Every structure is written in C-alpha cells, then in structure tokens.
Amino acid sequence: MMKTAFRQMISGCILSSLCIFGMQCSILGQTPTAFLTAVEPGRSLVGIPVLYPPVLTGTVSEFISATTLKIAESGNPDVPWQLPETPCYLEIVGPANHPWLGHRLELDEAATRQSTAGFVVLEVASPRNTASPLPDLVGGMVMIRPHLTLQGLFEKNLTFRLPELRGEILKFWATAPGRPPWVVEPRASPQRGLLWVTTSQGRTRFVQADEAILPPGSSFQAESRLVASLRTSLTGLTQTNPCRFPLSAGSNLLAYPYPVEMRLGMDWGDATSGVRGSAAPQSSDQISFWSEDLKRFLTYGYFQAAGSSQGVWREIRNLGGSQPSWGGVLARPVIFQAGEGWIFRKISADPQHTFYPPRF
C-alpha cells in the first residue's frame, strides 16, 4: 500500500463545521463527511472523493434549445436559488435507468443569472462536458453543484504562507476529461498577494478559478518544497451514481471518486473499465503511482495474451529504456486509499469511460 498524503475520513457528526451543510444534506438523505488531506513535502497524487452539496435539485421539464433547459425545482419553489460566485456544473442523477445518468454539463453562470427563474443555460462548447446535451434530457433528475478548484482547496492556507512561496516552491498538475495534465503554480506578489499562474511556451499568464477545476474522478499531482505539510479539509457529500470521466490518449490524472479504498482490477481497472491490454508492455494501458517508501513511481501494465479476453496487471521493468519487459504478476491487488490518485496512460482515447460505485 502506497502512502501519498495524510488523509482521514471523519464522520459528519463530529465536526461542528458540518452544520453549514445540514439543510441541503437532510434533503438528500446523506450525512455530510469531512475529508482531510495534506500535500506533503515531496511528491503526491491527491483526489478529493467528496462533492459540494447542490445549490439546486430538480427535474428537466423542457428542452428549450441546445443551450437552455427548464428545470422544475424540488423542495420549496418559493425560495429562490442562487448560483455561488464559483464555476458550477449540472449532473444527471436519476432515474436509475436514465441513459445520461452520471453525465456532467458545464453551466454558463453569467447567462443563467440573467435568465428567467427556472431556466439554466449550458456552456455547450466546454471541453469539460462529458457529452453533448440532447432533447432526451427531459425527465432527468439533475443537481447543480459548485466545482472543486485548486484555489478553493488551498487559497486560504496559502495566503498565510506567502513568504514561503519563493520561486518554484510548489507546483500542481491538474487535469480535465479529455485534456492532458497542465501545470498550475501559486506565487506570492508583494502588490497582489497570492496569484495562480501557468507557463506555456515560455509565456506566463494568470489562472482563473474556472480553469483550475478538479472534476469528480480526477486527481492532481503536487511537487512541494515547502518545509511543512499543506493541509486542507472539505466537508461534502458522497458520490452515489456512476461518474463519467472521458479519457484522452496519453496521461490522465485519476482518483476513485468514492470515499472508500479502490482495489485495482476489482473495483476499477479491468476490461469492464475500458482497460486495453497487450502482450507488449509499451502497447498496453498503464497505471503509475508514487511510492513514498521507494521515492519513485511504480508502473504496471495490463498484460493480455493474444486471443484472450482477460488481462492481468504486471509490473513493467525498464519502461524508459529501449526494451521494456514484463515483471511478475501481482500476488494481490494494489489498494489505493480514499483520496489517493494515480496516472493512467491510455493507448487510445476512451470517451465513454465511467467509474461505477463500489461493489460491497
């Protein structure tokens, strides 16, 4: 078992901060959960297996256009709902047999705020959409939630540690469905305080909150030269539906979106998860994760003999060399703790990839 960061799940009734979410959670029949995590000095791969409570729950009653839906709100319709000043998304959460179950669509927040009550405007061109909106969304139960962002998780704590942010002290690699990982850095400015920037082709620019989004099922990689841990906590709800996460060819930063341990090849990571195997290591899908004990990444490939419908995970030796080779078959499944991330390298894109709730 690889330790990447200090994490602990704590029952919702223990922490007084959970009262903030009490009303929303009682409606949904869930007890809020506090998830604590820390970016330790060195490297880590971190996922956040809880979600912000929804700001709106309802049913799609009308498909106005490719960008606009009408939603019949659940609960008390006399109490107007308001979007927070953060990026939000719409998720289809029911009924259980709905073909769009688990799909997510990005909101055009500015247009939604200006629209008539009950109407939601979608950002149909967003690469974070897991599918394109269609008229058969009518009848679907939906929730609108705020996104998790790097800024939302760490801005408060980093603001108190500005003197430490000199040079390349802290880097994050973030990802999104269908998008390769990219680097985001918090930096200290004497005039403006904490800034978030990214550099590409020698040009540095500011990162907006709606860019550094951590969608469900994603992880972020961190490299920290801070002296002490960078801790954060989030109180939220548990994902209970399938979680859509389209995969791009190449590297994808993933984490199990449910707050339980994940057994590789059992809960996720076999042919039913869209994993593609090969008899050649360099032609197989691969998973890499940071071993704190060994201070290096371990990489496993999905070995599948020609003509076989089943595969097994095997370590890949000499991966960066001219002749990578297979190591032994895993004697027991690799177990990822809740919130522990990994890098999944796909040989080819998988736009239909989906995480499913754990089987108990």
Keywords:
single chain, 360 residues, mainly beta, Elongation Factor Tu (Ef-tu), domain 3, 6-stranded antiparallel β-sheet, 3 helices, 25 strands
Q: Please, could you describe this protein's structure?
A:
The chain is mainly beta and 360 residues long. Among the domains are: 56-146, Elongation Factor Tu (Ef-tu), domain 3; 243-355. Helices cover 6% and strands 38% of the residues. The protein is built from three helices and 25 strands. The strands form six sheets. A six-stranded antiparallel β-sheet has the order 3-14-10-11-12-13, with helices on one face. It is globular and about 60 Å long.
Précis, in short:
The protein is mainly beta and 360 residues long. Helix content is 6%, strand content 38%.
Which secondary structure elements does this structure contain, and how are they paired or packed?
Elements (H helix, E strand, L loop, with lengths): L7 E3 L11 H7 L4 E7 L2 E6 L8 E8 L4 E6 L14 E7 L9 E3 L2 H6 L4 E3 L19 E6 L3 H10 L10 E7 L2 E11 L3 E8 L2 E4 L12 E6 L5 E7 L6 E2 L5 E6 L6 E2 L22 E6 L4 E8 L8 E6 L7 E5 L5 E2 L4 E6 L7 E2 L5
Antiparallel strand pairs: 1-2, 2-15, 3-14, 4-5, 4-9, 5-8, 6-7, 6-9, 10-11, 10-14, 11-12, 12-13, 16-25, 17-24, 18-23, 19-20, 19-24, 20-21, 21-22
Which regions are unreliable across 5 or more consecutive residues at pLDDT < 50?
1-28
Mean pLDDT: 85
The residue fraction in helices comes out at under 10%
Largest beta-sheet characterization: 6 strands, antiparallel
Q: What is the CA-CA span between the terminal residues?
A: 20 Å
Proportion of residues in β-strands: 35-45%
Strand adjacency order, main sheet: 3-14-10-11-12-13
How large is the radius of gyration? 21 Å
Helix/strand class: mainly beta
- Helix and strand sequence: EHEEEEEEHEEHEEEEEEEEEEEEEEEE
Q: Give me the number of helical elements.
A: 3
Number of strands: 25
Shape: globular
